[in-house]
Records
---
Amino acid sequence: MEQHEAQKNEYNIIGTRPIRHDGEDKVTGRAQYGADISFPDQLYGKVLRSPHAHARILSIDTSKALAMPGVRAVTTAEDLPRLKDRMVAGEAGAENIRYVTERVLASDKALFEGHPIAAVAATDPWIAEEAVKAIEVKYEVLTAVTEVRDAMKDDTPPLHGELTTETLGEKSKKATNIVRHTRHKRGDPDKGFAEADLVIEREFETKTVHQGYIEPHNATALYRSDGQITLWTSTQAPFWVRRDLAELFDIPLSRIKVVPMEIGGGFGGKIAVYLEPLAILLSKKSGRPVKMIMTREEVFYASGPASGTVTRIKIGVKKDGTITAATAWMAYEAGAFPSNWAMVGSMCVLACYRLENLQIDAYDVLTNTSKVMAYRAPSSPQAMFGVESIIDEIAIKLDMDPLELRLKNAVQEGDRRADGPKFHRIGLKETIRAAMESEHYKSPLPSGANRSRGVASGFWFNAGMQSSATVGINMDGTANVTTGSVDIGGSRASMAIMAAEALGLTAEQVRPIVADTDSIGYTDVTGGSRTTFATGYAVYEACQDVIRQLKTRVAKLWDVQEDKVEWGDGAFHHVDNGKSPMSVGDLGPKLEATGGPVMGHGTVNPKGVGAGFGIHIADIEVDPDTGKVTILRYTAVQDVGQAIHPAYVEGQMQGGATQGIGWALNEEYIRDAEGRMLNPGFLDYRVPTALDVPDIETILVEVPNPGHPYGVRGVGETPIVPPMGTIHNAIARAIGLRMRSLPMSPPKVLHEILQRGQTVEAAAPVTS
Amino acid sequence: MSTNRMVSTTINGEDMALIIDDRMTLLDALRDRAGLTGTKEGCLSGDCGACSVIMNDRVVDSCLVMAAEAEGAAIVTVEGLADGTELHPLQRRFLEQAALQCGICTPGFLVTAKSLLDRNNNPSAAEIRLWLAGNLCRCTGYDKIIRAVEGASADLRAAKG
């Protein structure tokens, strides 16, 4: 299999593939995930959830549950402070604390299936389950609206009576389900379309999908009688959990300690609080630690999946392939509470293309579904799916190579994204060229009936945000590196590699540590493809601080002025070469005698984020009798910046591609007319298995990001974006069928094959 | 209501007597009674394979086996793969090939792959994929897991000479 190594670089440790430091614990079963922590006197908490997607809560009677032997506490919305309207920081912009409170425990209305109504703590999980069933709730069932098209209609009753639409900063007069209308406009799209030789406009839809992390949400809380709270949980963002809890309970941050356990996958879905406040309320009432774990069904019903969407994309081109204008209209399912994902999608939808004339209108729409949260490059896959389909259609109509067409219109440094920001150094063009030159793309098309090849591009802007790190030098010259970034897929190793590079050590001489919120400075989420970039930057800064301090010690040891000491090639040198160089290892034993311990600090909020672009190539076969699509060969090409640990970079690309393949071919929330999910388990919500995907070949294009001392740009999210378009375009070229609707599952593809009758677009192979 | 009973079983080669609740699954008993939390819960419906253990030489989803059924059984969990300080070739290869990211599915994959290699120390990539199709991994895309199992099978063959 073709796997391009990172190009030779100037680094010693960066670009190597050491064994991850937390690996041994994870292959022996010793690693402590959230569900693995227990206390002798712990209680088990369970949640009563609304069976209705939309219902008024008329009464809640917990008396029978409370009277059951073994039940120690029951909690409802009455136990949460009723806070006034106040905007607080949320995972994708500010949100009203009143809605956060309402989401955690419903008071007057259940707004989605699985909405928590009450929670119980008991001495064993079976008693807790029985007690949940003993709680009597009277509901008045209301009409549920789960599709954005329905929710946007004028005559659909608004979910929240008071919520109005914000359009370009202005509030509407009438209550509505449209949270926000975001618009970006540049140039004159009408004029652009008039100048085009070919204009294609199409509508696309995608369904609600789930991140599908294998570890269910969990939380164990201890509320002490002095009001101090400790929480052990599986989260991507311990400091955000602490913030959300402080806001919800209206208490100081300093009363809460969040201990991030090892995390069994998140992909954006483990950022918001769900069980955490319930476990705290139950612990407060019972005086004992309370452990709660979601079932898989609860994860599907009541965590934060990704939006179902409807988009309408229009693109105009000249005969030579130059794009003259593009517009995008997009509506995103927000779930039952205001969120910002359509706005985020508007930052991505047209980002791959240089455009003088564009308009984007994006709508966040309330529905009776669990509040949508981040899912890997959140909002970009749904947005770019339609664009990439039309680009492919244009390539066929103009008889152009689809990568050549993309290259002709690709953004580069200095171009502006639709929403304003100017791109720094980016590698889209290099990535497209690498794809064109790949063995896969140059190889003949797969021979055989109903087979073809598709390509598509993907974009994610990547994030910066705040991180803290400390680096302590041990007395033997090894180092401990502590950060606040949860390690979700190998970041301990990348932190150790960067510290080793900076300090002239080996990766094995560095011990990377993920600290709790009491033990390290504020650090934002592990997400947004920011960890290796921003937390790595903080580690780099902490190492520079160490080097500054050590320089003083070397000067003291050499009895020279500090300006005579230089750091380079992993050691301190005398500028006049009068002394033998001293490494960090040499200095460790000398710290005590030269002034005491050395500890470096790094805190950052870096702005030089490098955006990520990728191209995927897929060879597929469609079975015309069943509608099943089989992937024969798959290659992911991406500008990854400087790859710190190439094996985990490849892993991000392979994993992201596979999630995208699942989204493209199978995954969807299937709901009945009452808004209830019919497939809340891994049997019926079918994520890809080892049999559903081929080897995922990776080509790492390394265009260093000048905004990072080691050229890092985010990697993890971009690779989930291209698969939908890639497979869609491959299907279109294989059998002349453009689905324009995800997932392209066997029944849907077969239905279209049977329906299409005579109006078939000519199947066109990719030229290469 | 609940009834407790004692189950005598062999776990990773050691005889154990566990007091269990009749409602417990084997997964519960391993985690909450034997203290072996390496076996993970992902779905409680036998769909994800995170709780895979070997029971009497067969891979089972321990969430679908009642604890009481473990009476007299020989069980191997992820904690039983290493030989003292020596990692099993699968464990070593998973580390070397970066075949894990979050690691929650890893114990199940290791146990399932071990049962394959116990039967067939030279499986094809297609056989490996088929054998592992009952274990879900959401992080890696499976590629590096397949490579790691191939590597471990080569190691085992080489060790046999």
---
Amino acid sequence: MRLERRRLLAAGIVTAAGAVFGASGLAQAKERVIRVTARKFAFLPREIRLKKGVPVVLEFVTADVVMGFNAPDFHVRADIIPGKVSRLRLVPDKTGTFVFLCDIFCGDGHEGMSGQIHVVA
Amino acid sequence: MRQSIDRRDFLKLAGLGGVVFASGLAGGAKFAGAAQDDFYFVQLSDTHWGFNGPVVNPDAGGTLPKAVAAVNSLEFEPDFIVFTGDLTHTTEDPKERRRRLAEFRDIVKGLKNKNVRFMPGEHDAALDNGQAWKEFFGPSFYSFDHKGVHFIAIDNVSDPAARIGEQQLAWLKSDLAKQAADARIVVFAHRPLFDLYPQWDWATRDGAQAIDLLMPHKNVTVFYGHIHQEHHQMTGHIAHHSAKSLIFPLPAPGSQPKRAPILWDPAQPYRGLGFRGVDAEVQKAEYEITEYPVRKA
């Protein structure tokens, strides 16, 4: 676990466990916040546009069932729980188009529940 | 031994000879276990009973019965048959889920060989933590021994987050502790235990922990499903072989933007679907895999 965390920190990325913020937001208050709504079986927005090296806070909500947000290329994920707001800080360390997907099986249609992160320089 | 040699001779003569995969670190080391007969088993996977999508498989109701007939018509009877998950296609209706599981069970009762092992896939089990599946097929993870090989079935689907979980990992550790370092070990799973392509959810969240537990054992081979195609990959000395589906094929990992089923080709019906026979040569820890179509061309 420690090795994994070091690896992610080295990549400029902090996982959900280390980056779920309290309600105050504290030092990250000035960072851009993008709210993502998960519902059966889609993310809104489906496309997220970011800049390399610029931190953002992704804020997840759902009114349906427990879902997951996973962006494997950045080694980050978060649970999305009805009635709660999950937050994930992401500092993209590369440019390109990358997949994100729901990684908690949530019903018939789960397998099509994905979107894209576009990172520009 | 005799039957295995006869079967392999037959496969070669019939032009069906399979591909031989050595398990792990065998490398000529003499197996300390008692001399054992070689044997073969059949793996079927991802039958998705209840699936409805005519452009993907217009014979969704007929493919499984055809596969059962094809297994029954094999020239040599396997020692056992294993289904590595997604027996049924998912439904959010618990009654319908049980109806599909019952229909699947009744169809596969048509297999002549009655030594059949079952495993769940996420389509069967993830929406109710395997409750309905267990009502029909019993425990979702287990181990058994057959002619010198230790088989372990791992459930990496009943948790909708695709975790094996602490409890099952502890059981796996305890089960493996009873095995010699050179034991012949075959693992069955539904999802890949390694990160094959997480962008398409082709992974197990804590699969690396299972692989870590397996690593001290020299001869480990994993047979799994989930990705609806044949795929072979090593993690260290552990070989992983995925099986074809019996409902629709999926594209190669990352070969296109979306993980969408490959559409039915009327010119080549049942293309990409099938099951496999695995000849286990216990002394050498080798597995010869022969892929069979649903229907002979």
